[in-house]
Structures are given as structure tokens and as C-alpha cells.
Amino acid sequence: MIPTSYTKTLNRFSKFPSVSEWNSKIRSSISQGCTQKALLLFRQMKQSSIEPDKLTFPIIAKASAKLSNLRLSESIHTHVLKSQFMSDVYVQTALVDMYVKCGRVDVARQVFERMPERDVASWNVMIMGFAEFCGAGEVMGLFRQMRVGGFRPDSMTLMALSIASSNSQNLNMVRGVHCIGVQTGIDGDVCVANTWISGYSKCMDLESAQMVFRGIPVVVRTVVSWNSMIAGYAFQGKFVEAFGLYRNMCSDCCNPDLSTMVSLLSSCVRPEALLHGNLIHSHAIQSGFDSDVTLTNTLISFYAKLGDIDSARFLFNGMNERTRVSWTALIGGYAEKGDVDEGFALFLAMEATGEKPDAVTLVAVLSVCGQAGTLELGRWIHEYATSNGLGKNVIVCNALLDMYSKCGSMSEACEVFLSISERTIVTWTTMITGYALNGEFKLALDVFSQMVVLGLRPNHLTFLAVLQACAHAGFVEKGWMLFRMMTEVYKISPILEHYACIADMLGRKGRLKEALEFIQTMPVKPDAGVWGALLGACKTHNDAEIGEYVTYRLLELEPQSAVPYVAMANIYASEGKWDGVAKFRAMMRSKKVRKSPGHSLVQVNGKIHTFTVEDMSHPKGLFIFAVLDSLALQLKEGLEPLLDCGLG
DNA sequence: TTAGGGTTAG
């Protein structure tokens, strides 16, 4: 159906317009965003027997690219082949670009290969296509061919290379492209410099990103330069720095846009940035940005990740238009909660609307399965991934690995691990964590050794995984060796979790004094996690002296926590020192600290059963305890459990 | 040229 306004426009046309008049009319329709109108004009032009010229095809190819319409693109291609411009470099380049924009880089490559002659622009569109759809190696290969062919790169070439390197998060390539830019004198182009800021940021090299940013003269900096730098800090969750840049941006009279808001908000996905995030939300409402899909998706993720699933759901329910990102963000929120029912229901609802899940959606659903330990559902998602062509996707495989190991099936985790052709650092770390989680400490360390032999660089989480394996297995010397390796060989500064791990490792072995000295000489202030690890060990080894010292340190940090009081009371009780027990119970009372009793929940056939310690209030309480006693006995004797308490 | 959902820990 042709809108009346278009027909009116056409009627206002002079009776016999020339081809250049048609061209400019079509071009202006495209620039106004009226792509359909442009195509209609093209059809009218053909009907009025005006032959398209050399300029018409690139203009109309651009319209088809904007619509990502493959059938239309093929028909334009056929028109070109029948025309006198079938060998023209300008027209052919437009066809390559059109196919790239339609997501058919393979067809674009075929057209490119058959071009009788090429110029820098044709190389650029092909490299840009590769940058979007292929790996960094293939992009650089194409660039080398271009250089061998005697073509000199321009700013477009550099931008394409830069985008390819940041997409693949390849720091060496970003550096290489930066060098080429400096050598060829293209480093003065602000658009190119912006892609370097983004490239360095995505490779976590904020120092270099800052260096490029500061190198752009203040008057030349664009909103994109600021946004790229803010996004860099946001990517690492550095919200204080991101907001600092935002303030500088405003004082430099650069107006923030929607991208600025989205980046700032994404830097706030951490509990300590909740207020900053709320501020951005209200600012977005005031500026009318809150109807934007991207911003709403970020808001959903922000609330869901910070545990406010109701707000996330409210925003999701109120959306006029949802994308797969909206669904994935909310599923991710239920994964965080471990709510498998809601998470999976949402996944099915998404499918029912016809929205296709992608790799990231499956990762979120698998995370739900891992959190909840639902192995059968996890296997079902595995089959779903395979039958939808995502079974080889590395992030899906990593999530499968994590799901299987959390569900206790290391054999299936191993199968997935072996099937991954391009293992990333996440793959290896997940495998190490999986073995450690399932008590296979030796295997966890073997996987680590294999990884190091292969020349892969472990990160701080890999070391956390091996240190935890050592702590749980009691491999103290090995643990120390790895800790030194991390700091001295890999130059990774330990974070609080690493220190807590070492304290735990020494404490479990009963080396409490050593653990205490270690904590007291740490270069950073120990937090509750570090002291808590030592207190746990004091409890295990009944050391009231060190325990009491640790308790006071913990109470300085968390005065309202009941844990230290209870731990100390228990240590004294086990030694029969009732004065000590009374002292800590009295302290608890005077500080009005209350300990909520620990309880467990079991869901059977949709009904949730709650149990606390020595709790007989359940209708089948007596029977359940009898079964538990029987189970304990059978486990002690190494027998298979025989009884079923019949909750279902 | 910039922005949204995701996997390793907790």
C-alpha cells in the first residue's frame, strides 16, 4: 500500500524529470529516513523508461542495505548485471557494501573477488564486512592482500581494522593498528582516534585509551570520544571514574546523549552504585530517554542484577517493544536469584512470541539451571543449543561446562570441554573450578598445569580457583607456590579474595598463628571475608585466644553481625568454658544483635517444605528424622541409601 | 567512530 503523501510527492514532480533529478530525489528520501519511498521512486523511474545511471545503483543499493533486505538486494544485483555498469568499480563497491549490510559477507566476498578492478573504497567495504563478521586473523589477511596490491590505507581502512581488533578484544592487534595509523599519518583523524579509545577500552587497557583520549585536542573531541572513554570505565564497573568523566564532559560544554546515559548506567551494576543508577534512571525519565529500548534493557539488567527483580519485571512488562536483549536481561535476573521456574517460564514465553534466543540468552538460561542444580533441564537446553546451531558457540559451551559441573556431572562437563576447539581463559577457569567444586583437587591442578604448558595466561580468577582447590585439599606448599607465581611471574596483584583463600588454607591446617601473621602483614586492609576465613578455622581448631582477637576485628567491621558472637560462644562451649559462652551471649543481648536460625527449603511436587535445626513441627517430622538417622548410619557403613521419607 | 543482555569467583 503506497501512502498518499508519497503519491502527492510524486505528483509534484516535473513531467519529464532527468535521471539526475530522479537520483537526487531518491537520495534525499534516503537521507530523510524514508527508505520505502526511495524504492518506490526507483520503481517509478524504471516505469517511466528512464535508464538508471552510474549513480543510481549505489544510491538504491544503500536503500536496500538500510532495510537489510536480501531479496531486494539480489534484484538490484540482477539489474546491475544487465546494465552497462556491471564492471564499474563504484557500482560494484556499492554491491559489496550492500551484501555486507544484509549480513551476507560470503556473497559480498564473491562480488569482491570477481571485480575487474578495485580501489581503496572497495577494499575498505570488504575489510569493514570482515571486521563485523569474521575473526581478526582473516581481517588482517585481507589487509595484507590490500597492501600487496599496492593500495595505501586511509582513515576508513584504519577504522575498519580498529573495529575488528576491538570486536575480537585483541590488544596486540589494537596496538598494531595504532602503529600503522601513526606511521601513515592517519592518527590525527578524530573518528579513527575514537575507535582506538574503544579498542583499548574493550581490551581492558584503560591507560592507553586515556592516552589516546588526552591526545585529541579539546576542541576536536566529539561526543563519541567522551562516550567511548566513559564506556571503557563502565566496562570495568569503574563508576566513580565514569561519572567523573561525565562531569568533565558537561563542563567542556559537550552535551551527553543517549549512549552516554546507557554507558553510565551500565557502570552502576554493583551494590555500591545503586544511588548513582537511580539518579540516571530519574534523569532518563526527565529527558524522555526512558522510552528507548536500549536504555530500558540496561535498566532491567541494573535492577535485576542488584536483586530488585520486581522493578526489573515492572519495566519489562511496561515495554511497548521488546528485543531478545530485554528477555535475556530479565532471565539473567532470575538466574541471579536461582529462580528456575520463573527463568525457564520466561524462556518459553520468549519462544512463544517468536523471538529467537541467541547464544547470550542460552547462557542466561544455563546459568539458571546451574544455580538451581536442575541437570535434566540443563541437558534439555544443551540439546536445544545443538539443534539451533549454537552447540559449538564458545560462550554457550562455557556455560554448559559451568552448568554440568555445578550439577555434579563432571563426565558431561569433560565431554563439553573436549568438544571446544577454541578454549578461552573462561573455559579453562570454569573447568578448574568445576573439578575443585566436585572435590577433584588433583585434577583441578592438573588442568591448570596443562593450561600453563600451552602458554595461556591465567587471570586473577584462575588463581582464585587453584588457590581454593589447594585450601580445600590441604596442599599448603603448593598453594604458597601458586600465590608467589601469581604475584611474581604473572604480576597479578592479589585481591581480598586471594588473601582470604590463603588465610583459609593455613587455618584449615591448624596453622592459625601463621594465618594471623599473614593477615596482619597484608598490604591492604583485610575485610570481613578475610577475618571470617580465620574465625572459621579458629572454630574448627577450638582456638579461643586467636578466635577472640579475630572476633573483635570482625565486630569493628560489621557490628551488627551475629556470626562472630555465635562462633565465639560455640568455641567456648566446646571447651566447657561457660563463662566465655555467657560473656558473648550477654554482648549479643546488649548490642541487640539477633541471629536468625538457619533453615533449609526443599521443594517437592511444587510444595515447599521448610526445616530448621531439631525442628519436629513438620507433619512427618518424626518419620523424617528416623530416615535421616538411618541415612547417616548407612552412609557411615558405605551402604546405598534404601529409605524414602515420602515427602512427595 | 560510541551505548544494551552473557560464561569463570562471591
Automatic annotation (TrEMBL):
GO biological process, one term: RNA modification
Gene3D superfamilies: Tetratricopeptide repeat domain
GO molecular-function terms, A-Z: RNA binding
Keyword vocabulary terms for this entry: Repeat
PPR repeats: 18-52, 88-122, 222-256, 323-357, 393-423, 424-458
InterPro entries hit by this protein: E_motif, PPR_At4g14850-like_plant, PPR_rpt, TPR-like_helical_dom_sf
UniProt similarity note: Belongs to the PPR family. PCMP-E subfamily.
Protein name as it appears in the record: Pentatricopeptide repeat-containing protein
Organism: Stephania yunnanensis
Organism lineage: Eukaryota, Viridiplantae, Streptophyta, Embryophyta, Tracheophyta
